[in-house]
């Protein structure tokens, strides 16, 4: 069974970047990435596989491009 996780950036400050994300374009959760450490957390406290895979894609794009992307999709 496949999984599709989508995210869109909703805020970027000096210290952190925030994304709405969810399964199948249901943007029902908030991901927060610390820009200094790249540590990620979710507002609901449930850092599950969906949060992990979309964080990896976002951080990978940041490492490749030097900036946080406006959006990201993970599909398996």
Q: What number is the mean pLDDT?
A: 96
Helix tally equals: 1
| C-alpha geometry | globular
- Give the termini separation: 8 Å
| Order of helical and strand elements | EEEEHE
Instruction: Name the strands of the widest sheet in spatial order.
Output: 4-3-2-1-5
Helix content: 10-25%
Major sheet size, sense and barrel closure = 5 strands, antiparallel
- The oligomeric state is single chain
Question: What proportion strand?
Answer: 35-45%
User: What class do helices, strands and sheet pairing give?
Assistant: alpha+beta
- Rg (CA only): 11 Å
What is the count of β-strands? 5
Task: Please mark out the parts with pLDDT under 50 across 5 or more consecutive residues, or reply none.
Answer: none
Defining key terms:
single chain; 76 residues; alpha+beta; 5-stranded antiparallel beta sheet; 1 helix; globular
Written overview of the protein:
This protein has one helix at 49-65; strands at 4-12, 16-23, 29-34, 40-42, 71-75. The mean pLDDT is 96. It has a five-stranded antiparallel beta sheet, with helices on one face. The protein is built from one helix and five strands; from the N terminus they run ββββαβ. By secondary structure, the chain is α+β, with helices and mostly antiparallel strands. 22% of the residues lie in helices and 41% in strands. β3 (29-34) and β4 (40-42) form a beta hairpin.
């Amino acid at each position: 069974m496949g999984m599709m996780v989508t995210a869109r950036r909703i805020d970027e400050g000096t210290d952190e970047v925030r994304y709405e994300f969810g399964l199948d374009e249901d943007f029902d959760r908030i991901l927060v990435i610390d820009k200094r450490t790249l540590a990620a957390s979710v507002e609901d406290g449930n850092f599950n596989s969906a949060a992990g895979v979309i964080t990896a894609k976002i951080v990978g794009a940041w490492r490749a491009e030097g900036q946080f992307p406006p959006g990201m999709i993970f599909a398996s």
